[in-house]
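BUG-363 | component: ligand-complex export | severity: low

The export step for S-adenosyl-L-homocysteine jobs runs without errors, but we want the raw record kept on the ticket for reference. Input record follows.
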Amino acid sequence: MKANLLEFDAPGMVGFCAAIGVKPFRARQVLRWVHRSGESEFERMSDLASSLRQRLTETAEVVPPRMIRDSTAADGTRKWLLDVGAANAVETVFIPEENRGTLCVSTQAGCTMACRFCSTGRQGFNRNLTTAEIVGQLWWANRALGAVHGAVHGRERSISNVVLMGMGEPLLNLENVLPALRLMLDDNAYGLSRRRVTVSTVGIVPMMDRLRDECPVALAVSLHAPNDALRSRLVPINEKYPLATLFAACRRYLEKAPRDFVTFEYVMLEGVNDSDAQARELSRRVAAVSCKINLIPFNPFPESGFARSSRETVRRFSDILNSAGIVTTTRRTRGDDIDAACGQLAGQVRDRTGRAQRPARVA
Ligand code: SAH
């Protein structure tokens, strides 16, 4: 079987070259062709010797997941649905803004975390994505946005930031996520700075430590509640890693993080976690960690059982936190007309856990 070159970070590519009898320094050139130029045909890698091109043709291929659908929202947000085989598909979202372009990448087909307000969580879980499937999202987006092949070079069209905030829990797939992160940072591949690559986690404490040690990038943690009782109802994994444990892990992470704060994500659910008293409680609790808070207006999906907090409520909540000295921003809802907003990514998951069959539960 041929090797899929999208699986390899730089050390992996060196190892592969050695295995097929190619000088290790060629690895760099191959990486550049595959990722920077978005090239999948070895014959077109014009500055490689023809003997090398032939060796690669015999032993390797560049296979991203197949693109099923490409949709563009009224606000310019773009969403791609990618086939990852066996009737599973995942989604990738590009969010253009004035001074940056953010790609939101999926890491699993489905998710095991079952957060009550998340549509991916509702779908159940099939499997972890491979490194090639994770990197393949970036590979496709780069091509589609015209960042390669010289099609379009408009600044607003290219990817300046990557967030692992799509479908799945990245820290439960760290084995495959780590090489993907290294490629995002590698100058021969996507060349992003550590500060512009963000892993978002529900708070898998031991894996936060591993990420810190192996590839520290910006960290976002999904908090969603000011205390353990409510958080355990919304985010079941809180039973295993309660707030005190989670905050301690955040502090350890910050020792090596490229930014000097953690971003806490907080989805605003009407009448559930959005009262003034909860804002004050939250401000007291998070004082333990150098952080910013990002409020996410809840994005509804069928039968979620939750409603979005009103703008007024979100503004008050934010004001209370800001006056307590905690920098708080509110995420603008993007791409909701194509179901590309936070928590709306559903792709297509052949659930193996039976979760999708269970009736919806209201927290
Ligand atoms: N598993 C990771 C990353 C995926 S979710 C994590 O939990 O952080 C990315 C963000 O979207 C998380 O903060 C998640 O809680 C939030 N989210 C999930 N469902 C949502 C919804 N319906 N509306 C708004 N945000 C949601």
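Assignee comment: Attached the raw record above. The radius of gyration is 21 Å.
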